[in-house]
Amino acid sequence: MEKVLSGNQNVDDLGEKTAITSHDSYLHPIRKKESIESNSASYLNSESIPKPVSPTFVGIQHRLSDNWISYVNIDDYKDKAINYLEIGVLYGANILSVAKTYGLHNDSKMYCIDPWEDYDDYSEYKNSISSVYDSFIYNIENARVQHKIITKRGYSNVEIQKFQDNFFDIIYIDGNHEPEYVLEDAVLCFRKLKYNGVMIFNDYGWGGPDVTQRGIDAFLAGYRNRMYILGQQESQVFIKKKKKTISNPYFTHQPFLIEILKNTTGNILELGCGEGSTLVIREIIKNTTRKLVSLESDFLWFRKYAHLEDESHQLYHVNASNEDTIETGNIWVDFIKSMRLNDFEVVLIDSSPRISRKFCFDYLLNRVKIIIFHDFEYFPVNNIIGHVVSTEVYDGKVKITCDLDNVVKNYKLLYPPFHYFGSYIGPSTLVCSNTMDNNDFKSLIGNVERNASAYYD
Fold first, then answer.
1. How many Cβ atoms are within 10 Å of 224's Cβ, its own excluded?
2. Maximum distance among all alpha carbons in the chain?
3. What is the DSSP track for 30-61?
4. Are residues 126 and 186 located together in one domain of the fold?
5. pTM for the predicted model, two decimal places
6. Residues 43-49: contacts with CB under 8 Å, at least 24 apart
7. In what order do the strands lie in the sheet with 149-152?
């Protein structure tokens, strides 16, 4: 068990805010497989406590990871290095069991958070926490898994936020059992859980319906559209985080844009504001030192986003027509030159008209590290940039392979699955670089393609 010293939310507010009364369970359709002890003392003295994880294990242990098998397929983790987080560790029995099952891969990392200090809520541990921590250290060393386990001795509301988002494959929550702290742990942890990752709550129903159950129910109600409830077994609740799928077939550049920005740290130039990019980029650079500059020639579209301008995001209106003329292309390039907009690592090209994309591409190719070019296929199809080598047709939809060897040093044309195509062709996204090392570019594209697959059903 682990205490969190944060949160100003009144316990009495939880039921009203989530439309769950103190005696109504969000999990009532799921058959409960165990009666719940009404207090911690009866639970600690329960004869159902499993045998130790090893004959030399020191301390109390509760349920172990063998209770997860019905809902968390261990075969999915057999040959996989995972990142695991446990909130509330005590003597370490559960994290040891995970290290030798789901985290068996030698490169798995097992993070645990617990302050290991006395507090009044759990009097049964009063004046003994120091020895509990010493026993935990002994247990992980004795089990010879200390190279996998990273200990964060502190409060969960502080320590959880230090991890990057979408980092953990499995998260186990067994911290402070008061409902407001259970809810806080769940909300903070969910952001750190990978898409398709599993989160497990311990002691659902412990102490009656107004303690852990109330906090867990509040989370399940509030996040019901972002997860699947896998089930409940022996007072443990299992949920799975839904994939972040693409809702608009014309936003198919989003996964590639997001993953490239995750793999870079520099400033971003956006040519053409859009619902599929502007807000996404802002969210990614929030609370960082990165800057976003957006250029837009359609004045109504510019006004739609102008109110967003702040210290990290500048927006400019490019006074150019929407006609595909050389003059239009030159206006875009001259604007970029006049603003001295050269300090960028990533450029997204999604402007209108098409000639502005061609001119900006030519100008920026050797001036930035990475170019992301949305709706690219028009240009090789019409021999404007590169040329088409082959085509693939599925259900009337066309996917092209193009040759840009005489244009750019490193490039990859990325497509979504066919059923995400917004029209008969594409939209494809070109990612290219004239300044990156070939191996670095291949590594970047490998990461992008691997992670982008999670955004599609």
1. 12
2. 83
3. SPP-SPPPSSHHHHHT-TTPPPPSSTT--S--
4. yes
5. 0.54
6. 43/203, 43/206, 44/124
7. 149-152, 109-113, 83-87, 168-173, 193-201, 236-241, 227-233
Give the burial string for 368-398 (b: 16+ CB within 10 Å, else e): bbbbbbbbbbbbbbeeebbbeeeeeeeeebb
Note the pLDDT tens digit of each residue in 121-151: 666 666 677 788 999 999 999 999 999 999 9
Contact 322, 297 (CB under 8 A): yes
Task: Please tell me the distance from the alpha carbon of residue 196 to that of residue 454, in angstroms, as a whole number.
Answer: 8
Residue ending a domain, among 241, 262, 293, is 241
Mean pLDDT, the chain, integer: 83
Task: Kindly give, in sequence order, each residue whose CB lies less than 8 Å from that of residue 347, ignoring residues fewer than 6 positions away.
Answer: 268, 269, 270, 271, 360, 364, 368, 370, 371, 372
Does residue 151 share a domain with residue 190? Answer: yes
Taking the C-alpha atoms of residue 81 and residue 167, their distance in angstroms, rounded to an integer, is: 12
Where is 131: in which H helix or E strand? Answer: helix 129-142
Residues 328 and 220 in one domain: no
pLDDT digit string (tens) for 299-314?
998 988 888 899 999 9
410 beta partners: 433
Same domain, 310 and 346: yes
3-state secondary structure of 410: strand
CA distance 150 to 111: 5
How far is CA 75 from its chain centroid?
23
Beta bridge partners of 310: 313
The residue with tokens 């359709």 is 29
Cβ atoms 315, 302 nearer than 8 A: yes
**DSSP symbol at 116:** -
At 164 the three-state DSSP class reads coil
Residue 6 domain-assigned?
Answer: no
> Alpha helix (H) ranges present in 61-116?
93-99
Neighbours of 211 (CB within 10 A): 20
The whole domain housing 389 covers 249-455
389 and 259 housed in the same domain? yes
| Separation of alpha carbons 135 and 131, rounded Å | 6
Neighbours of 147 (CB within 10 A): 12
**CATH code at 128?**
3.40.50.150
Handedness of CA 96, 102, 106, 111 (dihedral sign): negative
Q: pLDDT tens digit string along 359-390? A: 999 999 999 999 999 999 999 999 999 999 99
